[in-house]
């Protein structure tokens, strides 16, 4: 089980001071947050991609490469990479380069994106979002798995005898998670390729995501990648914790009430009741997070959104300290009773080992013929 944090890279006014950080301050802060994540023992740091204010992360691979140079074991990912408006060739090149620089500590989450104006900025039509996601990933998959690619599709110019460079490290592509909050077509795509499915369940009631994840698990098994319980699932989460739950609610309420993503809607109490958001004591946070397993089955990756809604850097780092204190309890809770058949989250090392084992099996089969 991997635990980590993800950032959507928003630049939001702190409602308690009326001041927003500058772009430069937020960019430098995200590096500190990632390094703190490794310091407290987290496994993953993931950064989103946006091309519009009030977000700063237009080039996640640049930021992640900088973070890779200052960390040792942290798995670096995205949340998400826009498969619809990015050229698959550029994604293949950028992430293979990052994979080499980070010595394999890289995977990525692909998504369609939910900002309508971005599509025409990059010459695409949002009404073609699903076909774009399907076709672009098919090309990306081939670019990483085949040394020479001939390609003709509907959304980009053809490729003739094209080789994406650099080639993936150890001839093993970065592991891909397909992120979605509503689209069964994306769950189907993840299942077809045997990739991971990340359901960012932070905004909607769990019943919606139970259906979406259940569908992915069924289709994963249908395509012969393993049993439904062996499908690779990731979930989102949010928290604000203090030793005293009343202090947590009092401190977080102004940020919740004014946050662009969920402010001025349901009350804090309703939101914490219906979604993974926990605002309370460390034990309340642990208990609620462990309950995700009851709703979605055993899964592989749990990421938390921490640096959002205008929370100042000092508070974010303090929240990560709180997370670090309960992390051993979370690990133990998810490990207890976990079936042996449920795989760990894929890493570069495990993917290389699987490829080596498969190659050895093919050699033995040929020798026996």
From TrEMBL:
Recorded hits in Pfam families, A to Z, give: Bac_luciferase (PF00296)
Keywords from the named record: Monooxygenase, Oxidoreductase
Q: Which residues cross the membrane?
A: none
Q: Where is the Luciferase-like domain?
A: 1-297
Q: Which InterPro entries did the record assign?
A: Bact_Lucif_Oxidored, LLM_FMN-dep_put, Luciferase-like_dom, Luciferase-like_sf
Where are the annotated coiled coils located? Answer: none
Q: What NCBIfam families is this protein classified in? A: LLM_CE1758_fam
PANTHER family recorded:
BLR5498 PROTEIN, LUCIFERASE-LIKE MONOOXYGENASE
Give the protein name, as stated in the record.
Answer: LLM class flavin-dependent oxidoreductase
Q: Which organism is it from?
A: Gordonia tangerina
Lineage here is: Bacteria, Bacillati, Actinomycetota, Actinomycetes, Mycobacteriales
């Amino acid at each position: 089980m991997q635990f980590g944090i993800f950032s959507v890279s928003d630049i939001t006014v702190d409602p308690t001071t009326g001041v927003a950080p500058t772009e430069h301050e937020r960019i430098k802060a995200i590096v500190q947050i990632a390094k703190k994540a490794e310091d407290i023992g987290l496994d993953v740091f993931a950064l989103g991609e946006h091309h519009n204010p009030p977000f700063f992360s237009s080039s996640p691979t640049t930021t992640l490469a900088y973070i890779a140079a200052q960390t040792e074991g942290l798995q670096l990912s995205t949340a998400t990479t826009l498969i619809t408006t990015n050229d698959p060739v550029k994604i293949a090149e950028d992430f293979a380069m990052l994979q080499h620089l980070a010595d394999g500590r890289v995977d990525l989450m692909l998504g369609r994106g939910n900002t309508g104006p971005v599509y025409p900025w990059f010459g695409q039509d949002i009404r073609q979002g699903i076909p774009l996601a399907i076709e672009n990933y098919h090309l990306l998959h081939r670019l990483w798995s085949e040394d020479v690619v001939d390609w003709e599709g509907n959304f980009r110019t053809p490729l003739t005898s094209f080789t994406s460079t650099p080639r993936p490290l150890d001839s093993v592509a970065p592991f891909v998670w397909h992120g979605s909050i509503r689209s069964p077509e994306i769950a189907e795509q993840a299942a077809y390729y045997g990739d991971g499915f990340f359901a960012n369940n932070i905004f909607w009631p769990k019943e919606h995501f139970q259906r979406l994840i259940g569908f992915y698990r069924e289709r994963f098994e249908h395509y012969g990648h393993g049993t439904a319980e062996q499908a690779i699932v990731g979930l989102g989460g949010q928290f604000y914790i203090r030793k005293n739950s009343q202090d947590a609610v009092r401190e977080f309420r102004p940020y919740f009430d004014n946050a662009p993503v969920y402010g001025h809607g349901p009350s804090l109490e309703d939101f914490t009741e219906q979604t993974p958001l926990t605002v309370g004591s460390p034990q309340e946070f642990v208990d609620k997070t462990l309950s995700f397993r009851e709703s979605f089955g055993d899964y592989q990756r749990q990421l938390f959104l921490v640096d959002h809604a205008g929370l100042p850097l000092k508070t974010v780092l303090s929240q990560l300290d709180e997370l670090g204190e309960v992390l051993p309890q979370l690990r133990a809770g998810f490990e207890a009773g976990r079936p042996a058949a449920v795989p760990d989250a894929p890493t570069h090392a495990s993917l290389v080992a699987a490829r080596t084992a498969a190659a050895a099996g093919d050699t033995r089969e040929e020798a026996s013929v």
